[in-house]
Amino acid sequence: MSSDVLKKRKSKVLRSEAGTPEVKRGRGEADQQDVRVYNEEVELDGRNPEQDFDQYKESCEALSKLMSEIQRMKASGAKEGSMDVEQKRMQSCILFMNLKKLNRLAHMRLKRGRDQTHEAKQRVDVLHLQLQNLLYEVMHLQKEISKCLEFKSKHEEIDLVSEEEFYQDAPPEISRPSLTKTDPHQLTLARLDWELEQRKRLAEKYKDSQATKEKIQKSIEVKKEHLRSLQPGLNAIMQASVPVQEYLSMPFEQTQKQAEIARHLPPPLYVLFVQSNAYGQACDRNLIVSISGDVDEAKALSKPPDDSQDDESDSDAEEEQEKTKRRRPTTGGQLDDKRREMLKRHPLSLCLDLKCKDGSVLHLYFFYLMNLNIMTVKTKVSTTTDLSSAISAGELLKSDTLLSCLYTNDQGRETPNPANRYQFDKVGIVSFADYVEDLGYPYMWVQNLGGLHFPSESSEGVLVGSSLSASHMESTMKLLRGRVQSRLALQKQFASLEHNIIPVSSECQHLFPAKIISRLARWTTISHQEYMDLPYTRHVTEAGLAKETDLFFMGVLERGTARLHAAVVLSPRYPAIAPLFSLSLNWKGECSGRTDDNLRAMESEVNIFKHELQGPRPGHQLLTNQIARMCVCLDVYLETEGQDVSVEGPREFPREKMCLRTVRGPSRLKPFKYNHPQGFFSHR
Predict the structure, then answer these.
(1) Strand 361-369 vs strand 673-675: parallel, antiparallel, or unpaired?
(2) CB neighbours (10 Å) of residue 9?
(3) 122 and 189 in one domain?
(4) Which of 17, 168, 321, 468 is the residue whose CA sits 20 to 30 A from 115?
């Protein structure tokens, strides 16, 4: 093929690539190249990407065919500079130039697409910022509207009469119907004026009632004098009716004697005596009230001091001074005497016996410290059965822990009367907690039962009286009975737990599967310091959930080579406040709830979902149900754990529980929720 033919074909390819007539080369060649670059950008809008792609594939196929022909010609012996080889080579160069152009067009399309995407993103960002600004403005307006709606005026706290009664009863000069019916503001002002007028009338009526009351009281005093004159005859009749009282089991005489003794009680004990008797007669026949102590000494205290004695003679005074000079007491002896005098109790005390359904009795002994103006209590529990078998339950029925925190944060270690601090400073008493074992515990609810109220702003105790005592009597008696029943139930449960038996009642059997392989290996009590020293309970102590008033226990669950340690915090207010479990597993290493998500999920099963384990009210079986749930969770944990395929032989923990899914999620949580009555385990 001649060189002229090749030149003609080359010119045709160039015209097809450029889409414009061939430009002659010569002077101004750089300017012509700039025009070509511009024409390619303009040409890009008119070209079809699919056609360019088809042209790209055709060029690649043609180039591949030319290369194969050149290789075949060289293999057949054609020389390097022969005409055919050069012709094929020129055609390949033309195709390669076409590929480069297509590549440039593809890159230009890519750049244009990226620019369009960036512009669209910028428009979206601008619109998003405008939306956020509008949302902030809406939020600000909503807050302002809420403030306006929540505004409360002082007159809203006054319970005004209805509008119908106002227009019906109020005079026209106050109601002014022509103005108030169209103006709500004027209506409110008129109603307030009418309220003021009514209160003035009621004040006048109150004064008249007080005058009538005084007249009635005078007539009552006259009648009382007449009744006092009948007392000797009534005493004779009562004495003659003693045999009849004994026969009918109606001890009026004993009740009368107790009432006579009660007259010498100090005011707080007397308020408690009256209110407890009234509550026992009205609501609780199992509440027995009795008074003990030295009545004669109480009578001597109630007598006023005798100021009618003659002054001593000068000679007697001189002799007394000489005796005191010879025997002067030491400073320590004086302080001890002052402490004893300050901590002196009233000679009479009150005993309340609160009987429970199971035959157990809670004995409450109330004392009154005269100089400190506070009441204290001591406790004792009597049961029909021997409960001394459980070692871990030794703290449950002790006097210092039995009634601790009956109400929230009421530990009874310090005096509730603020004035006592200044009294203690004078006699060198550092803390009242050093004397509670002998004097009793000054719980706040004890002061309330006695009608004593110690406001934080005042330094002296105020005897509020029967109203305060009555308001606390019923709730306190229920709490006391509930506390004794819960402690006795825990006593029996601990006896079983120490023998590695988890007692589960028939009402709670549906909460657990029929087969539980993990077992309780050990149950012991631990101290507060030992609990704080455990590494896996640090988050509980840092959160303030473990207090010195709580009880602490350690349980160990076993199955095969796995041992699960459970540190338990038992609140004095159990079961109102559920026990708190912290777990640590020793199997293939040691892990805890802070390092293992599945152990944290096991803690959640007993700590967070405790309402599922309450059982029948009042929920005394919550602790044992939580321990049983821990055994079930340990079974699921071990049975769903993957086995090492490199170890031959049977699995250490064969799968006994039916699970829908063994693990779920990135943390590989196991199914700890038991579904009754289907009997399978699932995830929460």
Answers:
(1) unpaired
(2) 15
(3) no
(4) 17
What is the tens place of the pLDDT at every residue in 234-249?
Answer: 778 777 777 776 676 5
Nearest CA to 613 out of 638, 660, 581, 582 is that of 581
Same domain, 561 and 434: no
Q: Are residues 517 and 665 in the same domain?
A: yes
Dihedral sign from CA coordinates of 319, 325, 327, 328: positive
* Local confidence band at 323 (pLDDT 50, 70, 90 cut-offs): low
Q: Which residues, at least 6 apart from 84, have a Cβ–Cβ distance to it below 8 Å?
A: 1, 73, 78
Summarised one tens digit per residue, pLDDT across range 364-413 is 999 999 999 999 999 998 887 776 667 777 778 887 788 888 888 888 88
* Position 352 in a domain: yes
Same domain, 117 and 174: no
Q: How many residues does the chain have?
A: 684
Q: Are residues 664 and 518 in the same domain?
A: yes
Evaluate whether residue 104 is within a structural domain.
yes
Residue 674 contacts residue 632 (beta carbons within 8 Å): yes
Residue 296 is assigned to a structural domain of this protein? yes
Q: Which of 458, 486, 514 is the last residue of a domain?
A: 486
> Reduced to 3 states, what is the DSSP secondary structure of residue 570?
strand
Cβ–Cβ under 8 Å, residues 511 and 613? yes
pLDDT digits 0-9 by tens, 498-554: 999 999 988 899 899 988 999 999 999 999 999 999 999 999 999 989 998 899 999
Let me know whether 272 and 182 are in one domain.
Answer: no
Query: What is the count of structural domains for the chain?
Result: 4
Same structural domain for residues 660 and 511? yes
The letter for the amino acid at 126 is: V
Q: With 90 as the cut, is the pLDDT of residue 603 above it? A: yes
Q: What percent of the chain has pLDDT over 90?
A: 34
Is this prediction's pTM over 0.85? no
Place of tokens 């506390």: 483
The residue assigned the tokens 């093929």 is 1
Q: Output the 3-class SS for 577-617.
A: CCCEEEEEEECCCEEECCCCHHHHHHHHHHHCCHHHHCCCC
